[in-house]
Amino acid sequence: MADPTTVDEYLATLPDDKRAVMESMRTTIRAAAGDATEVITYKMPGFKSHGQFLVSYDAFKQHYSLFPASDEVVRGLGAAIEPYLAGKGTIRFPASRPIPLDLVTKIIEIRVRENEAHASR
In this structure, what is the dihedral angle of CA atoms 95, 21, 39, 48, given to the nearest 10 degrees? Predict the structure, then answer.
């Protein structure tokens, strides 16, 4: 099977339970990201804003990931993000618990500001 070229194609490959969570993540990111455009990057769904990579996200067996956890995201969210950090730039939400969508919104808002600042330079 060919790699998905759209987010809808990607989502169609997931089991129903994972698809529902990923659609929720997609909706949350889209709402917080303003004019960002959807992309497939590294075989994962993602978004670009201001001509630059914003975030990507993916479903795994035991968790859902959101990339990246930039230095600004870590500094801006402090203790709220710490339980979810896994390695450089990776945020992992356990599949056994609901994703904290309010935290995802804050992550995206920080990333959008980062991209805006970079684009204005």
Answer: -80
